[in-house]
Amino acid sequence: MYVAVKGGERAIENAHAWMAERRRGDREVPELALEQVAEQLSLLVDRVMAEGSLYDPGLAALAIKQARGDVVEAVFLMRAYRTTLPRFGATEPVDTGAMLCERRISATFKDLPGGQVLGPTFDYTHRLLDFKLAAEGEVPEAPVGAPREGAVPHVVSFLNAEGLIQDEPESDETPRDLTREPLDFPADRALRLQALARGDEGFLLGLAYSTQRGYARTHAFVGELRIGMVAVEIEIPELGFSVEIAEIRLTECETVNQFKGSKSEPPQFTRGYGLVFGQSERKALSMSLVDRALRWKELGEDFVGAAAQDEEFVLAHSDNVQATGFLEHIKLPHYVDFQSELELVRKMRREAGAMQEAAE
After folding, report:
1. Which of 109, 102, 111, 59 is nearest to 80 (CA)?
2. Is the pLDDT assigned to residue 338 strictly greater than 90?
3. Is the pTM of this model over 0.90?
4. pLDDT range class, residue 113, cuts 50, 70, 90
5. Is residue 263 very low, low, confident or very high in pLDDT (cuts 50, 70, 90)?
6. Are 71 and 37 in contact (CB under 8 A)?
7. Would you state the pLDDT for residue 1?
8. Is 68 helix (H, G, I), strand (E, B) or coil?
9. Is residue 92 classed as helix, strand or coil in its secondary structure?
10. CA-to-CA distance for 351 and 356, rounded, in angstroms?
11. Shared-domain flag, residues 108 and 197
C-alpha cells in the first residue's frame, strides 16, 4: 500500500507539471499577462467575480490564467481563496439609485429622464468575425459624448408613483448570509437572490429561457437594465458615520411582469430582480426572470410544474462549484463499489442462466 501511495503521489506531481506546461503553451509566444486578461477579457473576469462571490479583477484574472480559461475552475479558485480572507466588517447596502450609469436602457418607456444610454454593448453588432483584430491593428477611440453627471431615477419608480406595480416592502432585518450559513428550504427572497447572484450563468440562462417559452406564467418586459459604478461604504463606529472605501461596477436589471391579482392584491405589475458584479447583462436578466418565477407562492399564483418555479430544484442545482464537485468526484477511484456491483451482475446472470436451462 505504501508503494502504491508513493507511486500515486509521483503521478500526481507529474500531472501537475504537465498541466503547467500546457498552460504556458508555445514558449515562442509571449506569456499572457494578468493585466491583459483583466483589461481585454473583462466580461470573463466579471463572470468569475460574480460566480466566485469576490470582487477583485486582479485575482479573477489570476484564476482565469491558472485555470487555462476554464470558467468553473476559475470560480472554484476564487471561492477557495475567499474562505481564507478575514472578515472585519459589513458594508452598508449599496445605493443603485445613485449609480453613475455607463449603460441604461428600458424596453418599457421610450422617453425617460436621463435618457436611453446604449453604452458598450454587443446588441447592435452584426456578429461577423472582425479579422482586423487578428491583425492586431489599433482600435479607434470611442466617440465621447456629453459628460454624465449625477444619478438617474429607476424606471419602475414611474409605475410605482401610479400604484401600478407592486411595492417592495423594506425591512431592517439583516438577511442571512449564504456564504456563512448552509442553504436550507424554504428560502426567503433575500437568500434566493444571493444564490442566484452566484449561480451558474448558463444554468440560469436555460431556466430563464424556459419561462419565456411558457414553462412558467410570466410575461416579462425589461423595465430597466443599468450598468455603472456605485460607492461601497462602511460604517466606522468611532466616527459615527459611513465612509466610502471603494467603487465597484454592477449590473442591475428589473423586469416588469403581468399579475392578474389575488384575493388581497389588485391587478398590477410585479417585478423580477437581478444584481450582479461587473458587466453581466445576460446573467442579471436571467436572474430577474428566474426570481419572478420563484415568487409564485408569495403572489398567490398557481404552481404549474415549471422547473423555474421549483425553489429546491433551482437553488440546489444552480451552484456550479457544488455541481462540479459532485459530478467530477466519479472520476476518482471507486474500485470497491464497482467490484461489488460487478459481482452482483455476474451472480444475476448465473441465476438467469440456470433458470433458462431448467425451463428447457
Report:
1. 59
2. no
3. no
4. confident
5. low
6. no
7. 35
8. coil
9. coil
10. 9
11. yes
Cis omega (within 30 of 0) for bond into 30: no
DSSP conformation class of 165: B
* C-alpha cell belonging to residue 153: 431615477
Q: List pLDDT tens digits, range 175-213.
A: 888 888 888 888 888 999 999 999 999 999 999 999 988
Domain match, 34 and 112 both: no
**CA atoms of 170 and 159, how far apart (whole Å):** 18
Find cell 445613485 and name the residue: 98
Nearest to 117 by CA among 107, 108, 104, 106: 104
State the cell numbers at 79.
471561492
Cα separation, 355 vs 337, whole angstroms = 27
In a domain, 91, yes or no: no
**Closest to 308 measured CA to CA, from 209, 237, 220:** 209
What is the number of other CB atoms lying within 10 angstroms of the CB of residue 238?
4
Beta-carbon contacts of residue 268 (< 8 Å; ≥ 6 apart): 163, 164, 165, 166, 259, 261
Q: Which domain holds residue 57?
A: 2-82
In a domain, 223, yes or no: yes
Cα–Cα dist 188/28, whole Å: 54
- The rounded distance, in Å, linking the Cα atoms of 50 and 250 is 10
* Residue 290 to residue 178: CA distance in whole angstroms: 18
Domains of the chain: total = 3
End-to-end Cα, the chain, rounded Å: 49
pLDDT digits (tens, 9 = 90+) for 286-313: 999 999 999 988 888 888 889 999 999 9
Query: Is 269:162 a contact under the CB 8 Å cutoff?
Result: no
Same domain, 27 and 158: no
